[in-house]
Design brief:
alpha/beta, Alpha/beta knot, Trp Operon Repressor, Chain A, 5-stranded parallel β-sheet, two-stranded antiparallel sheet, binds S-adenosyl-L-homocysteine
Length: about 240
């Protein structure tokens, strides 16, 4: 079954971009996934093909027009009625590996890419669109965010990565960061590979990896650690809260 990616964008020439190379590129060529990059501007109706307008209430920048977005989404839903529609926005729910797994197991995804100040807010409820963020950063457009989302899905499709992608040890798969990796040479600029990894003792190696995954998550990502353990963690505001969902 082909995973159908539809991207609604003002810059269709950005696709497949990096997804045309390496594993994702080969999978695209083999038909494991398909890509349809749709020009949002084609759904503008005036003679200037206007897609944006000034923000209500004033302020800087331009806002993508809701009627144009709606026509673009309706077009995509007509082609792929079974695919969820996701809009890339820093105001959205942070993308997670769990959501990526769900999406990758489905028929595909339709991704709406913003530009300028973003979307007219009415589109999300008006067309049942899921708002997704790829992190607490601001990009100049939704296209790199869409590439991230698609890359994360595509590597999970059957046959794309072989055995590695089914591994449950990777970062976030069990709520933890993955343990660190090393490879030859054993000594590099005076730094050696941890002895245990060369011991050949598989039980000891597994225990060491488990310990490092826990320690590193606790130290680097107290947010993940808090969720993983269900512990009470200190929030940024200093208030104590329950983090277990
Ligand atoms: N004014 C908006 C930012 C607009 S950035 C705000 O402050 O919330 C322009 C476009 O880039 C957005 O519409 C969105 O599609 C994309 N974008 C920027 N940062 C993003 C992020 N962290 N995650 C997903 N998409 C993002």
């Amino acid at each position: 079954m082909t995973f159908a990616a539809t991207v609604l964008t003002l810059y269709p020439e950005m696709f497949p971009g990096p997804l045309g190379i390496s594993l994702a590129g080969r999978a695209l060529a083999e038909g494991t996934w398909s890509l349809d990059a749709v020009q949002i501007r084609d759904f503008a109706t005036d003679k200037h093909r206007t897609v944006d307008d000034t923000p209500a209430g004033g302020g800087a920048g331009m806002v993508l027009k809701v009627d144009v977005l709606a026509r673009a989404i309706d077009h995509a839903r007509g082609l792929r009625p079974d695919c969820p529609v996701l809009a890339m926005t820093p105001r959205g729910k942070p993308l997670s590996q769990a959501r990526v797994r769900e999406l990758a197991a489905g028929p595909g995804v339709t991704v709406l890419c913003g530009r300028f100040e973003g979307f007219d807010e009415r589109i999300f409820e008006g067309r049942d669109v899921e708002e997704v963020s790829v992190g607490d950063i601001v990009l100049s457009g939704g296209e790199p965010a869409a590439l991230m989302l698609l890359d994360a899905c595509i590597r999970l499709l059957p046959g794309v990565m072989g055995a590695a992608s089914s591994g449950t040890e990777e970062s976030f798969e069990n709520g933890l960061l993955e343990y660190p990796h090393y490879t030859r040479p054993n000594e590099w600029e005076g730094r050696t590979i941890p002895e245990v990894l060369r011991s050949g003792d598989h039980a000891k190696i597994a225990a060491w990896r488990e310990q490092r995954a826990s320690d590193d998550t606790r130290l680097r990502r107290p947010d993940l650690w808090g969720r993983h353990t269900g512990a009470r963690v200190q929030s940024a505001s200093g208030a104590r809260r329950e983090t277990k969902e």
